# Entry
Amino acid sequence: HFITYACLWTDTFIKIFYDGKCVRTIKDKQILKEMNQPQMVLINNHLTKKGLNKVGKQSSDFQIKYFKYHG
# Structure
């Protein structure tokens, strides 16, 4: 089962979708001012500092079926 994440990003709002449902809309002008700067895409499954992984599992599957960016 693949989960679909999407982001609709304009100058006036950012909408974040989870499996087709909008779960967050950002319209705060200060946040948008900071976010409407040059960005990069970072896709990461597991980013922690050494010693913080208390679960004991050192790896997990992270499969990306499809990625699309319109700039």
User: Anything to note?
Assistant: The beta strands are 5-9, 14-18, 21-26. The mean pLDDT is 81. Residues 9 and 15 are 6 Å apart (CA to CA).
